[in-house]
Amino acid sequence: MLTGDDMPEISIIIRTKNEERWIRHCLTAVFNQDYKDFEVILVDNESSDHTVAAARRFPLAQVVTVEKFIPGHALNEGIRHSSGRLLVCLSAHCIPKNNDWLSRLLENMKDPQVAGVYGRQLPMAFTKEVDKRDLTIVFGLDRRIQVKDYFFHNANSMLRRELWQQVPFDETAKNIEDRIWGKAMIERGYRLVYEPEAPVYHHHGLHHANDETRVRGVVSIIEKIDQEQVKGLPDSFLPGRGNVVTLLPVRGKVRSLGRHNLLKNLLDTVAQSKLLNRTYVLANDDEARRIAENHGAVFLPRPEVLDSNTKSIEDVLFYALDEIERRGDYPDAMLLADYLYPFRPPQFFDELVYDAQFKGLDTVFSGRIDFGNYWKRDQDGQFIRVEESLLPRESRSPIYRALYGLGCLTSVPVIRRNRLVGGSVGILPIKEHIYSLRLTDDDTSSQIIEALLR
After folding, report:
1. Are 368 and 432 in contact (CB under 8 A)?
2. 249 and 197 in one domain?
3. Do 206 and 121 touch, CB atoms closer than 8 A?
4. For residues 188 and 360, which has the higher predicted lDDT (pLDDT)?
């Protein structure tokens, strides 16, 4: 703990539990604040993902580990390891909207009668309707000074250390430890302040049981009258602001058709994207290395073990992610593309990124729309129908044939679970048959693709 003049004015306490998806965005916004006299204490509840590793890329003062999570206990532990005169409580999945967020909270503490201040919470573009409704109704536009009302919210708050020392957060309550503390302050004659000019994005809501039909009706009205409130995204979530890397795996020798080198063609297509960052070519072929380096891509040597028929594309992604991070590149998501698919729609890769970012999806891939009737064998070897309906196609829902190799964008937390597809999933519909063509060892496919490439 720092002492004397070295002590920061503010200590920011951030609680985490498997927050890999959010922590980089949260800490980026925190360390971009215009007010700089602060320290950050991370209180982690034994995360099993890469939350702590991602957080340590920032200049944290300390990382504190708690075993059993109780909100008040976690906050108290973080505060006990901190030094600031003022304390900020911030959830790891809350992302300050502006770089004056901390200054706006601090301004309210000039009044010695103010025990604590809490800021506005905004939904994100992909927040569920029930949560959009709750956040927009509870956290309004008018600043409030609370003399009797003890509502307080530690997802985004600031309080005085001296008052916390008198009344620490309740370590037995499983929730609303913030309102318990707020009530104690009001009873002691202090005031609480709601500051709408210190907003954070918070994709969760406040309540857990609601009639979703009714919720959708309320939110549809809110969206019409105030789109800015409910359709926003933090800057670091906007397409082009995150770190989306591209992985192009090559198995064996690079394939060509006539004068067309398919790996070169794909690298040229990737280079046209405005939203993708570094490109990696995973191969064990010297020609692939030369092509990658000539196109400004990073070559990753592909170990022979990945060529085994027992290894899946998920194993390839998992290995590649580890190698990429060893090189100091820490992506939010990875775009998988198979160079043996020679045809893709215009701006296709950017469409995948837009879908993932604005809809909050963990995985987005392309899917060929299919209205066919399909059969499969059951466990007894009997044929059974997958789609029972024989109605005209306009009366049936389509089936989507996954085209992962055409393009599949997967968030890093999903890849760490050795999965290509996981979490919330989106499919980008592909209607034209040409985009589902893939070069195989079949002579017919080679002839068709070569003819179309001319």
Report:
1. no
2. no
3. no
4. 188
